[in-house]
Amino acid sequence: MSETERIAKRLSRAGVASRREAERMIEAGRVGVNGKIIDSPALNVGPADKITVDGAPLRDAERPRLWLYHKPSGLVTSARDEKGRETVFDKLPEDMPRVMSVGRLDLTSEGLLLLTNDGELKRKLELPATGWLRKYRVRVKGTPVDADLAPLRKGIVIEGERFQAMEASLDRQQGANAWLTVGIREGKNREIRRAMAEIGLEVNRLIRVSYGPFRLGELKAGAVEEIKPRVLRDQLGLEAAVEGHAVAKEKPKRPLRKKPGPPRSDGPERAPGRPAKPSRPQNSAPRRPR
To answer: What residue ranges of the chain have pLDDT lower than 70?
Structure first.
């Protein structure tokens, strides 16, 4: 980093917290700059400034990293829970660095949750302007027909709050329940559950299967898988994502084949495809005429 940046952004890039949470930490007097505790995020810092969080030096920012996590039902998507319930972070592998979730999944929701060590990447992926489609498999109680889903495709208003148009399709009926596929781009709090309730359907299972280009696939519940740096670069344009990784060696070039030269001029040219006449041994005598 060669230029100055806001202190909250610096903390976010170092993986301490999201930018908003970092601002709250600053206001709580937990952050110091050059030996002095600060209480306002309205401060720019440069590479030479010494920053501490809770008295400990701020570690250098690592390259942005992203993981896929298959969240099981029953875990809270929060660093701490006031009710003492288990969180997704309690169940992550011990060798995982400190990470933050990209968005949230409800306590009883399951499926794909993105995790990152970089607050700026988290913010970028959560912004509505990113416009990534998030797809869910939704099980509802009842026997809906396709026409029942029409209001979702147009966009509905619930208690004065406008919900953008969703993608919604009826997949199959399974006993007393029906399976739907739903796609959203906003990600408001309990958006799908509230929208389904508005059209008279009760959600009893909700599984996120994709978030933009990233898919749950065959990842088992509770498993974590890191996205390769090259994929981050291709999907997000993060050049820093490949720093520190070996560059693939160039394949050895094959030697050029020499083009066939012009036909020799010391003999008569023959038609293509016709075999050449066998040459006469040099020491053989010419035939005598009969």
So the answer is: 1-2, 238-290
